[in-house]
């Protein structure tokens, strides 16, 4: 869907208007800011801030960016990033519906929010001094989901960057049909309950308990982009965290493989828990992101961008460049033993010391034979490493929904797709249970939710297949 000067007339169809909240005030020697209000077609008002570089715009207008914050956040969270980009671009940040100073209810990037996204684009495209053909989008977490979903629904972004987000919401939060109940609980509780849309409240309990999966899949499908990314020719740069237990590396690599246009992937030292954003490589993230937008929106001469960058952990000031995903080899270990679990019981099995360091990159798999009875509804695997310095690292974890199973079954549990350095001399421990809290009370990814008192599982030996880098980049 192309948008030119004639698209200004479309603005009235969306009933988007600007109300100045005061005179523009400089926030630096070369940037002016203005607080504005954006009126959606259902009467909801979104609060926004417009950042404009000083001086007269060039003929045809300046390139521009819209920045999208995360769930439970607000536009001010992105102020430092907006100011950095505003040295070159007109930048608009806004409080998403139900956030910050904006009105309305939060439906987690549902159809209403995507309609808002289109309206925000159209408003910015109509501003004096903005080139409507050169508007890009940058979004983090919830905001990244909105950017990708709006892109596949036809909002004509000229270039896109997303940070620690999803391409398929269901596989991100309910892999193997087992909800990451702790992550979902934390996400939903980052927004006041009276700010949640009825569509979210209707599925909240099922999302925590891994029930009514068809309804959950439909909800997630309306908020995902992966199924349509093969038709996207827009330049897209995907930033994903090395150790993000909410949206793991596979959410970006799956999208990267599908995208038909110019694309780049940066696997960095940031993310949702157990990582943080910003991370130690923030300046590199912003430098790479700024170069991407300049290349596609300003059209400055530039060499072709590298396809994939991977930062080491700990960060050492420079990311490694790859033409394709770095090569891995399988590391295998059999955790012997047999256990019968009831209630909050757990099976804990430990290896010997590793003769050399391992750096994981990809999704490990744990294969185990399980005899299920009495309604045992889930098996969770947590892989940890105890280092020679007596530090425990959660290498990865995952779970599988067994609610429909009874009797003996060969289970394969896919762990999170993460990049974790395991030092030489570490001992690996595999914990099998009904929750991640069995490994540690502070490990809240999979909560200890009730099961029938008759529930029981017997577990045999477990085979771990762990993808590790052929040439580690961390040390």
Written description of the protein model:
This protein is an alpha+beta fold. It folds into two domains: 5-322, Rossmann fold; 328-468, Sandwich (Jelly Rolls). Helix content is 21%, strand content 33%. It contains ten helices and 23 strands. The chain has helices spanning 11-14, 79-85, 111-125, 142-152, 169-173, 181-188, 198-209, 213-221, 249-258, 282-298, and strands spanning 18-20, 25-26, 31-39, 45-53, 62-68, 90-94, 130-140, 159-163, 236-241, 263-268, 308-310, 320-322, 328-335, 339-342, 347-353, 358-359, 362-373, 378-386, 392-401, 407-418, 421-422, 427-433, 456-469. The radius of gyration is 24 Å and the shape is globular. It starts with 10 loop residues before the first helix and ends in a 6-residue tail after the last strand. 49% of the residues are buried. The model is unreliable at 1-28 (pLDDT under 50).
How would the global form be characterised?
Answer: globular
CATH class of the largest domain: Alpha Beta
Number of structurally distinct domains: 2
Helix count, per DSSP? 10
Q: Which structural class fits the helix and strand makeup?
A: alpha+beta
Q: Could you give the topology of this structure?
A:
Blueprint: H1 11-14, E1 18-20, E2 25-26, E3 31-39, E4 45-53, E5 62-68, H2 79-85, E6 90-94, H3 111-125, E7 130-140, H4 142-152, E8 159-163, H5 169-173, H6 181-188, H7 198-209, H8 213-221, E9 236-241, H9 249-258, E10 263-268, H10 282-298, E11 308-310, E12 320-322, E13 328-335, E14 339-342, E15 347-353, E16 358-359, E17 362-373, E18 378-386, E19 392-401, E20 407-418, E21 421-422, E22 427-433, E23 456-469
Parallel strand pairs: 5-6, 5-7, 7-8, 8-9, 9-10, 10-11
Antiparallel strand pairs: 1-3, 2-3, 3-4, 4-6, 11-12, 13-23, 14-23, 15-22, 16-21, 17-20, 17-23, 18-19, 18-22
Helix pairs in contact: 3-4, 6-7
């Amino acid at each position: 869907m192309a948008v030119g000067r004639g698209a200004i007339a479309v603005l009235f169809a969306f009933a988007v208007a600007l109300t100045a909240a005061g005179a523009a005030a400089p926030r630096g020697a070369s940037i002016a800011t203005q607080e504005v209000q954006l009126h959606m077609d259902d009467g909801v008002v979104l609060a926004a801030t417009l950042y404009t570089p000083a001086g007269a715009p060039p003929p045809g207008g300046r390139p521009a960016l819209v920045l999208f914050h995360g769930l439970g956040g607000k536009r001010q969270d992105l102020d430092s990033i907006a100011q950095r980009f505003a040295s070159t671009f007109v930048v608009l940040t806004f409080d998403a519906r139900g956030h910050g100073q904006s009105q309305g209810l939060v439906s987690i990037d549902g159809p209403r929010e995507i309609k808002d996204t289109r309206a925000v684009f159209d408003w910015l495209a109509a501003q004096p001094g903005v080139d409507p053909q050169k508007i890009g989008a940058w979004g983090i977490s919830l905001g990244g989901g909105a950017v990708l979903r709006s892109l596949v629904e036809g909002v004509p972004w000229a270039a896109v960057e997303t940070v620690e987000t999803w391409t398929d919401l269901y596989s991100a939060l309910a892999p193997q049909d087992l909800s990451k109940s702790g992550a979902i609980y934390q996400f939903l509780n980052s927004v006041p309950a009276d700010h949640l849309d009825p569509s979210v409240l209707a599925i909240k309990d099922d999302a925590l308990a891994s029930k009514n999966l068809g309804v959950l899949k439909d909800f997630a499908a309306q908020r995902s982009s992966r199924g349509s990314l093969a038709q996207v020719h827009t330049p897209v740069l995907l930033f994903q965290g090395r150790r993000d237990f909410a949206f793991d590396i596979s959410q970006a690599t799956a999208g990267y493989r599908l995208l038909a246009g110019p694309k780049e992937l940066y696997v960095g030292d940031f993310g949702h828990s157990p990582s943080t954003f910003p991370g130690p490589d923030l300046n590199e993230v912003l430098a790479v992101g700024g170069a991407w937008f300049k290349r596609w929106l300003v059209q400055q001469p530039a060499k072709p961008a590298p396809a994939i960058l991977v930062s080491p952990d700990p960060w050492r000031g420079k990311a490694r460049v790859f033409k394709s995903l770095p090569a891995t080899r399988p590391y295998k270990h059999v955790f012997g033993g047999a256990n019968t679990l009831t209630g909050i019981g757990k099976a804990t099995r430990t290896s010997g010391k590793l003769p050399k360091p391992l750096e994981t990159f990809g999704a490990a798999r744990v294969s185990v034979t399980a005899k299920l009875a009495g309604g045992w509804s889930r098996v969770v695997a947590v892989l940890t490493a105890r280092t020679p310095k007596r530090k425990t690292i959660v290498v990865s974890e995952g779970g599988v929904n067994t609610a429909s199973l009874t009797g003996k079954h060969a289970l394969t549990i896919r762990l999170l797709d993460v990049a974790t350095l395991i030092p030489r001399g570490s001992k690996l421990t595999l914990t099998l249970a009904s929750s991640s809290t069995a490994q540690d009370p502070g490990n809240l990814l999979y909560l200890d939710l009730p099961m029938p008192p008759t529930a029981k599982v017997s577990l045999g030996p477990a085979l771990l297949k762990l993808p590790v880098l052929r040439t580690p980049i961390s040390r």
